[in-house]
Amino acid sequence: LTAVDLVKSTMATIDEHESQLNAFITTNQKKALAAAEKLDAEGIPADNLLAGIPVAYKDNIVTKGVRTTAASHILDNFNPVYDATIVEKLEAAGTINVGKTNMDEFAMGSSTESSYFKPTHNPWDLSRVPGGSSGGSAAAVAAGDVLAAFGSDTGGSIRQPSAYNGIFGLKPTYGRVSRWGLIAFGSSFDQLGVMTRRVKDAAPFLTVMSGHDGKDSTSSQRPVPDFSQFIGQDIKGLKIAVPDEFFGQGIADDVKAQVEKGIKQLVEQGAIVDHVQLPHTKYAVPAYYVLASSEASSNLQRFDGIRYGFRAEDVKNLTDVYVRTRSEGFGPEVKRRIMLGTFALSSGYYDAYFNKAAKVRTLIKQDFEEILKTHDLIVGPTAPDTPFLIGANVADPITLYMKDILTISANMAGVPAASVPAGFNAAGLPVGMQMIAKRFDEGTIFRAASAFE
Ligand code: GLN
Fold first, then answer.
1. What family is reported (predicted)?
2. Suppose 143 and one of 32, 75, 123, 251 were both cysteines; which one would form an S-S bond, judging by CB atoms 3.0 to 4.6 Å apart?
3. Quick check: 422 and 262 in contact, CB under 8 A?
4. Catalytic residues
5. 64 exposed, middle or buried (CB, 10 Å; 0-12, 13-18, 19+)?
């Protein structure tokens, strides 16, 4: 098998699925084939696991010479002149970028329905959403288009779609992976991660992606282990905390039942389970939406019709350029966040909203730190439900925001967290089990998730 064969068959599979899934915004056939030809000519070293492997990137990860839109009209003709650090590293390892995946506009959403490029469909049931915002990456992996796809997770955008698609998706510790070249949403929450069907397949990708980068001052100097070493280690004596709040009101019964079954399996393998409380969980959603929207309102100022992408036509003066470009270029969810964030940061309301939410964030962080002092993992469901019908929640943003209740806290605390496939409900829809570990302890997630799988 040559790299060219692999890229050709991947492209054929993507083409076959796309009319039903719409998982990609842009495919990258020509450049991918050229990269594969070069690899074949140079010869693939036998010890390089990743060389020649076709992968896909969420479309908020900038790729040199390959259109990068963040699923927004305002960037729909943006052709970056540089690669994100993770793209640079993964390409140096020999992986091949076959395309850019669909997502919620600027990663704001939980269903991939806020994309300017139409929603992605869930491969398990085409009438349902794939989750979001990394819904295109999740669907592409679940459908077998690519072995691995990359996404970003600000409040659950890797884990929730992974749960909805029955795949493994990991959000690393804040600072583990450079954010350089990720189109910023909430910079103090954003983290890039990897999605694969099998747990063991994610490990070598994370090893390559991780590590300090001078271009991201929040990236950590910590040494990066070879994450593959944790795959298949036993979990005897592993201390697992199960928070009551993760099984409370608003969590669907079929999800609870399936995850409880999963926890039993972990116990059968020697894990020790404690029931614990994360008392500030109920404030996570409102605090997150104030903080992440505030950061977004600041980060999205740069889209002004001057520097990047789309610019409104027939404008009369500079104010008109700004106002019309942003009015026409952003979709309704992005505008809602910008307004919410601008309001929360404005002088008269800053203390009441932004500052209050920042304090709640500290309390949530302390809840996690306390429990993780005495436990190796926190385990519960990833999402409160299974994939819902396309269109079912578009008119109701608050209902959609509540779907992040179980994922947001890990971003608030900066700790690593993953969704691991935990079987299916009676209707055949996938359920995800979430595993949350101490800062920089992704290894324990790989250990437990591979034992569980
Ligand atoms: N659903 C959350 C939001 O809309 C999380 C998004 C994300 O993680 N990018 O903000």
1. Belongs to the amidase family. GatA subfamily.
2. 123
3. yes
4. 58, 133, 157
5. middle
Q: What is the ipTM of this complex?
A: 0.98
Q: Which amino acid is at 151?
A: G
Dump pLDDT digits (tens) for 220-278: 999 999 999 999 999 999 999 999 999 998 999 999 999 999 999 999 999 999 999 99
Q: What is the mean pLDDT of residues 372-386?
A: 98
Q: Other CB atoms closer than 10 Å to residue 5's CB: what's the count?
A: 12
Which residues partner with 378 through β-bridges? 241, 436
**Nearest atom within ligand 1 for CA of residue 337:** 10
Per residue in 121-142, pLDDT (tens digit) is 999 999 999 999 999 999 999 9
CB 236 within 8 A of CB 245: no
Ligand 1 geometric centre to CA of 227 (Å): 27
Count of residues in the chain? 453
Question: Cβ(109) to ligand 1 under 6 A?
Answer: yes
Tokens of 396: 């109701």
Nearest to 342 by CA among 352, 354, 359: 354
Token output for 231: 């795959």
